[in-house]
Amino acid sequence: MREKRRQIWVITLEYEPFIIGGLGTVATNLSKALARSGLQVTVLSRSPTSRFGITRKPRLSIIRFPKGPIYDRPAAAARWLMKRAFRKPDNIHIHSVQLANWAIFLRKKYKIPIFYTCHSLIAMEPGPLTKKRIIAESRQVQLLKIANKIVVPSRSELVHLKRRYPFSAKKNDRDQAWGRHSKIRIPRSASSFALRGKTGSDEIPRVEKRAIAGAIQRMWRNRKATRQRMIAARKLAARYSWPQAARRYKRLFQQSWKR
Fold it and tell me: Is residue 67 in a domain?
């Protein structure tokens, strides 16, 4: 008897062509690579209009629920999917904090593991402490607590996460958060590798206009060092690919299937 294809539901507010930054790039390319690896991937997102957006490809479906209050409620989205014969997922993979209530609802409804790719920590982002930010941070903490596995894109993000939320490092591998820290390299462009963190010989101290502009100026003044960094960045970027990242995610998913 042929084994059923494993189902992964990916929850993200950003997916091509509606991409704002790195999160959308990762969610898009990783989902495609997971589908090519043999998994059945369904991307759940929101439409910028009041209409559904539905795209079906081999092993990959993208469902964009209309904007508005109806599908702010995850139960409504789940009913829509079940009526259209979308099979219960084996795993939930969430990228976007804004849709945390969807992931939390689906985990409770289907008793399935959540994998959270934490692209950045809201608590560490610059800017005023607005009501919107407080809500977003609260949702992120909920995700960190309920996730079976947390994936971070770099060692520095892992350090910040453990320092800010020590509880995440103490969870056991069984049915709560991490068990072990999962760090999967996310492919980036060579320019991203070269400019991220260090430019020239100085670190960018703050994510603000003057600090970034000053670092870029120093980069252009020190052209020899910049060229060396670009060469090293291209070599580093070449070591990582979306199929490679997908294989590592798939191994994480498989750990939950064995239980």
Answer: yes
Q: Is residue 169 pLDDT above 70, yes or no? A: yes
Per-residue pLDDT of 87-118, as tens digits, reads 889 999 999 999 999 999 999 999 999 999 99
Residues 15-25 as b or e (16 or more Cβ within 10 Å = b):
beebeeeebbb
Beta strands 7-11 and 40-46 are parallel
d(CA 242, CA 38): 14
pLDDT digits (tens, 9 = 90+) for 208-244: 778 778 878 888 888 888 888 788 777 776 777 899 8
Mean pLDDT, the chain, rounded, equals 82
Within-domain flag for 1: no
Q: In 3D, which of 205, 199, 195, 197 has the Cα closest to residue 225?
A: 199
Determine the Cα–Cα distance for residues 158 and 171; give it in Å rounded to an integer: 15
pTM of the model: 0.79
* 8 A C-beta contact, residue 182 and residue 150: yes
- For residue 54, list its beta bridge partners: 63
CATH number of the CATH domain containing 39: 3.40.50.2000
Q: What is the SS3 assignment for 185?
A: coil
Strand 53-57 versus strand 40-46 pairing type: unpaired
Do 235 and 252 lie in a common domain? Answer: no
Q: What tokens appear for 149 in the block?
A: 């596995």
Cα distances from 7 to residues 39, 52, 60, 96, in angstroms, run: 6, 22, 10, 19
Q: Is residue 142 within 8 Å of residue 181, measured between CB atoms?
A: no
Displacement of CA 232 from its chain's centroid (Å): 26
Q: Tell the residue number behind the tokens 């608590």, with chain if given.
A: 123
* Closest to 246 in 3D by CA, of 196, 186, 169, 201: 186
